[in-house]
Amino acid sequence: MINQILLLVYVTVILLLSWRFRQGTFSGFALSDRNIATPAIIGIAYTAAYFSAASFLGGGGYGLTAGMPWVVFCAFFHVAFACLAWLMAGRIWAAAKEYDAKTVPQLLERRYGSPLGKVILAAIMLVLYTVYLVPIFKGCATLLQGLIGVTYVQGLIFTVIIVAIYYAIGGLPAIIWIGFLQGVLMLGGAVLLYSSMLSTSGALEIWSRIPAYATSMSGIDIPWQKTLGMAFSISLGLLALPDLLIMIFSARDRRVVRFAGIYGPVSIAVYSICIFSLGILAYGVLSGEQISSFIKNPDSLVPFLARTYLPPGFDALVLLAAISAAMSTISAIVLVTTTSLTSDILHYMRPGISDATVLRLTRLVGVVILATAAVSAIRVPSQIVPLVSISMGVIACCVFVPLVFGLYWRRGNSVGFVASLLASFISIVIWNFYGNALVHPVFVGLICGGAAYITGSLFTSGLGTPNPDTLKS
Predict the structure, then answer these.
(1) Which of 280, 281, 331, 473 has the most CB within a 10 Å radius?
(2) Which Gene3D superfamilies does the entry mention (predicted)?
């Protein structure tokens, strides 16, 4: 009964916040009119939008098969890339304001003078983000099964309804403020579960019971090279995922961005260390028979740990924290996907369309994307982590090269921009099917995209010259 009460309270708060921040203009809906003035709100909402049920379920359980390399590589790359992301955030915010960009494709279009590049990137985001939503829906529905005893499909329906309501009403302001609340729940749940496992088994004793092969940097069932690539690919999203960048766009000024850069990396460090360690800690508290059963389905490990090692009621808080992680990510993804589709692609096809029409279509299309992803999640044959790794990696790779070069290299132009998008996307797809499995496709995409960007820009020097004022630090 307590689980249902907690969920009811949580949903009520979300709906009240979405109504409080309801928006009537496209600028307010997509960008909060650049008026978010509290650094902690942006920093922790950024963390909540990045991590999801995929990290809580997939990230926690993946250590069972990947071993210690998963913990070390994930913790290192997440913290390192989070710090780099917030070091660049001031420039990103300045560029978005200078170009009056409401979406990431729009920012890159105006930096390079390339409507074609904007449409290509928006199309890539539409396809890959829809794929990315599928494992997140899977995680959320699985968690709702454990929290309130509904079926998997009922969990999917519940998720769609709640996220659709607060997305359609409040837009980015609601997503950011609700994301802050969800981020606090996520951090509390991660710390609670991690500390509970340590205290139950003895902080030092648990490590003495973990077998040497689980703590070896060689990995368990998955080679360390593959784990390295997967951790790198997922963490790269911190630098270039549009659903995170849009939160930087929303800040009122650079001071807000600067101080948000404290809350973001710190919260990411705490969460990643606590969650990604759970698979290793499980070897110190579970029997060999239990470990074998979870290796077959690693995504079920974290709900089991929450129900087993937390007092009654506290397990519900941890599962609710994971559900929060899922909903925050879903809402942010749907926002950037639909605004890119309606604002970028639709404006390209029909330049005279009104903002009021774009806003109505943005709300409608967002609900359609939510429903499509949920239906696709009814049958998901793969584990969560590999699905997240490839879909998130492709998007981040396609944005990373033109964004970073565009901020720091004046000679980049529209030809380099388009060439990098195509080279990154095509090389990743080809390598995913035909390349060496130990080398993650995102490494190949970054190399090919970077080479195409530099080559295209140098051989067509003078096209798409950037505004020098925007590039000032």
Answers:
(1) 331
(2) Sodium/glucose cotransporter
Q: What single-letter DSSP state applies at residue 36?
A: B
CATH code of the domain in which 173 resides? 1.20.1730.10
Nearest to 399 by CA among 72, 112, 63: 112
Which two structure tokens, joined as six digits, stand for 358?
């774009």
DSSP 469: G
Tokens describing residue 110: 């105006």
Residue 397 C-beta-side C-alpha neighbours within 13 Å: 34
Quote the domain boundaries for residue 149: 2-399
Contact 417, 402 (CB under 8 A): yes
Q: How many structural domains does the chain have?
A: 1
| Three-point CA angle 94, 78, 198, nearest 5° | 140
Residue 364 three-state SS: helix
The dihedral built from the CA positions of residue 469, 242, 395 and 179, taken in this order, carries a sign that is positive
Name the residue type at position 121: L
In a domain, 465, yes or no: no
Give the tens place of pLDDT for each residue, 393-448. 788 889 999 999 999 998 899 999 999 999 999 999 899 888 888 888 889 999 99
The reply to whether the predicted model has a pTM over 0.85 is no
Residue 464 located in a structural domain: no
CA atoms 108, 110, 112, 113: torsion sign: positive
Spatial contact of 445 and 389, defined as CB atoms under 8 Å apart: no
Output the CA–CA distances (angstroms, integers) from residue 92 to 2, 102, 271, in the order listed.
44, 12, 25
Distance CA 163, CA 324 (A): 11
